[in-house]
C-alpha cells in the first residue's frame, strides 16, 4: 500500500519549516497549487492566498523565518483518495520574541498525481493574536 | 444507501438554529456528546466546550438567540463510516445588531450509532471579532 500524499506533504512541510530544506516540499507541490491560510494578513503577512508553486515555497520560507515547530499532535484526520482533512495541535516558538505559541490548525488538502493542488487552513486567529501580542485584547460580551 | 449521519445532523442543527425546532437535533445527538467551538468565550459565551446532550442543546439555543443563518456553502467535505470533516462558509445575521457576518467554519465530527458523539469547530475568530465589533482592531506587523 502506497503512503498517502498527506504524510509525504506533511513531512516535507515540517522539514522545510524547521530545517529550511525545501527540495522535498518543492517535489510535493503541484505547479498550479492553490493555497490559503485564513487570518489577519496585516499582522501575519504569510497568511492569505497564494497561487503557484513558487509563491507557496516563498510563503513557507517566510513562515520558517518566523516560527519553529516543537511538537504537533494530530487530533483528527480523514483521508480520501486524493484528499485529506486534519485538525492538528502545534506547539511553536515565535522566533523574534522567543514566545511559545500553541494553536490548532484545521486543514483541507487536495492532491493531483500525489502533489498538493489545494490547501485551505483555518486557525482560531483571535487566540493566536493574543498569544503573539502577549496580552488579552479587551472585548465586549455580546450575548 | 443510507444517508450519512452528517446530513441528518446538519439539517437538524440548521432547523434548531433558524426555526428553534430542537426535537430533530436532540434525536441526532448522543447522550455523551463531546463538543467544542474554539474561540473567545468572553465575547461569545456560546463558544467553548460542552459535555452531554443537555448542555449541547442549551448552547444551540443560545446560538439561535444570537444569529440567523441566511446561506451556507460547503466548500469541502469528507465522509467516513462514522466521521466527517467539512469546511463551510456561512452568511449570518447577528440578531442584536442586525449586522451581516460572513465566516468559515471547519468542523470535525464523530458519530456513534448514527448520533453525534464528538464535534470540534475552528473559526477565523479574529475576523469574526472584527466583523462583530464593526471596526478593525489595530495590530502590529510581526514579520
In terms of DSSP E residues, the strand content of chain A is 35-45%
Order of helices and strands of chain A: HHEEHEEEEH
Overall spatial form of chain A: globular
Measure the end-to-end span of chain A. 51 Å
Q: In which order are the strands of the major sheet of chain A placed?
A: 2-1-6-5-4-3
Describe the SSE topology.
The structure is a homodimer of 143-residue chains.
Chain A: H1 5-19, H2 23-27, E1 29-37, E2 48-51, H3 53-66, E3 67-79, E4 83-94, E5 99-112, E6 115-123, H4 125-133
Parallel strand pairs in A: 1-6
Antiparallel strand pairs in A: 1-2, 3-4, 4-5, 5-6
How would you describe this protein?
Two copies of one chain form a homodimer. With 143 residues, chain A is α+β, with helices and mostly antiparallel strands. Helix content of chain A is 30%, strand content 43%. Chain A contains four helices and six strands, in the order ααββαββββα. A six-stranded mixed sheet of chain A has the order 2-1-6-5-4-3, sandwiched between helices. In chain A, strand 4 (83-94) and strand 5 form a beta hairpin. Chain A is globular, with a radius of gyration of 16 Å. The first copy, chain A, starts with a helix and ends in a 10-residue tail after the last helix. In chain A, 37% of the residues are buried. The model of chain A has no long low-confidence stretch (mean pLDDT 96). Chains A and B meet through helix 3, strand 3, strand 4, strand 5 and strand 6 of A and helix 3, strand 3, strand 4, strand 5 and strand 6 of B.
Short description:
The structure is a homodimer of 143-residue chains. With 143 residues, chain A is α+β, with helices and mostly antiparallel strands. Chain A is built from four helices and six strands; from the N terminus they run H-H-E-E-H-E-E-E-E-H.
